[in-house]
Sequence to fold (660 residues):
Amino acid sequence: MRHNTGSKRSRRAVSGFSAFTAEAMEERILFAAPTAQYVAITGAQNPAGNAYQFSVIYTPQGSPVTQGSIDIRDIVVTGPAGTTNPTSAGANANGNGSVTATYTIPPPPAGFPGQYTVQLQANQVFDNANEAVAGGTLTTYNQLDTAGGGTGNDKLSPTAALVGVPTADPSGVGYNINVSYTDDVDLDTTSIGNGDILVTGPSGYSDFGKLVAITNSTKGLRTAKYLVSNPVFRGSYTITVQPSEVKDTSNNFVQPTTLGTFTAGFVNTGAGGTGIPTGGGPSFASPDVSAAVTDIPETVATLGKGKVTIRVTNLGDTKTPTKFKVGIYLSDNRVLGSADTLLKEVTVPHRLDGGQSKSYTYEVRFPDVPAGNYVVAALADSSAVLKEPNEANNVGFSTNTVLVKVPNVDLTPKFVSDLPTEVVGGNAGHVTLNIKNNGTANFVGGSNITLYASADNVLDTTTDPVVKQISGLPLKIGHNGGSKNVKIDFNYPTNLADGNYKFIATVDAGNAVDTDPTNNTAVTPDQVFIRRAFIDLRADAVSVVSGPLKVGGNNTVVVKVSNLGNVAVTGPLGIALAATSPTLAGQVPLEKVVRQVKIAPLGAKGSTQSFRITFQLPPTLPSSQSPGYFFQATVDPDQVFAETDETNNVVTTVNPFPTR
Fold:
């Protein structure tokens, strides 16, 4: 039998009778809950990067501890890294009704050392009488530093600090930033290079530092000089160290952090005039326009349409005297030439003040070019109507590339709904699957969807059961990222072992050609604990309620029945009644009834029900019997229902009942 949380089990029995009536008195057998004792395996100081292990001995105070109720949900560990559960829980019976469970706690992520508390959860571990172990704190331990993640005994990460204030490079091409790296052992010089730092600021400015030189190199200390491009807009710029870049000789990396800020860019006076702060740079006495491409499609079909966003800036100190045009081009390199295709030429609808910037989005049609990756370029003042001091900065290219290819369909699924924490096999459920079309053509057709349950996140069609299969589902999904949510209703499998399961979905395009079948599978980010469905009928009590017994006449008993299972008992339930007495040779069958029932699972309303049965004592029995007659009720005598425990289907009155 499987045990569930709920009220303590009880058994009712008859304790006495009067001259005219017999009343059933309740007798409860109460068991004390099991206790838990922590047993250390790993010491109070847990080494860096190691899992923490310990055991708990669950000792019964009455009924034996149920080994099957022990799993990873018994324990919760809290600390600097948040809350986690064990990755494994092993249980071994000790032979005296107690059970020893061994739990393994995974090490926290890098950078979260400190004290962690191990807590036993209430209503998780039970004994066979359904009594639950109380919750509480078991122990605490100190997780040593894992921030570096390095090898050997050196587990400390190097540190980084800003040296001085960033200054404009004398050449006018950008700003110099000096950073010192310090380690308790030594730095790995080869890990210092481009991309160690990132500078961000106003209007989307973002530039990784390019290593110029290592200006100081002594044991445990390096000073690196980086160069970033000139900021345009006046404001505060932030310097951050990037993860997994600079490390020491034990492979401990400098942790991501903000080093500091500095002020740079052209000053906008609000009237078109500009000034030059912090170290110089160009100063323009007339309009000077530039263009940048800030957003393009990821993919597009030949002769298909896509949206391009450009940003046009007046770097000069006076307002543009007239409207001007911007040409948008497709290029297979980052040099704009006469061979590059003009996608669209647009007119900037505003005159721009000095230092002003505006963004515009346009829909363009891409040409019939060979399939491949292309950049999009924007040429400010493409018709050359403005007199500018610097014509070389009019062109800007997209950072990313657009993949131009023949029209295609590329479906990829993703779960966008949450699974419940725990269910019983056979219960109804549903998931929502978002199906995205990364192709350049619309998908209109029948899609095939198969839903699997998996004990891990790797699909194995030979072992993972199919939960739901949908063939030819009509879908219409737009191109270039169009998507549609599909709700899938199903029933949880009934033939799986108790455990945690993820759901995996596969999607295909039916009769259409999906050009990338490698992305047609999705795995739920969460999991659900599925319990095998079972029923367990228990005969709780039988009581005579019609007064002193009548030999040869009608008598009435009440039989109380409970369902200890986790699913309802529905259908024809048989109950057989028999009488016995110390002076009789054996049991005397009295009555067998069949009732249509629906008995709810344990813990739900209606999980215990009573049945009145009228019967006759055969006139052949002695009318005066000492000490009286005992009665026995058998639930489901013909075993119509498949139960996990057939031994608790019989109950007998505790006291005899007299006849008239």
Summary: Residues 159-265 form a domain with the Immunoglobulin-like fold (CATH 2.60.40.1220). Confidence is low (pLDDT under 50) at residues 1-30, 266-285.
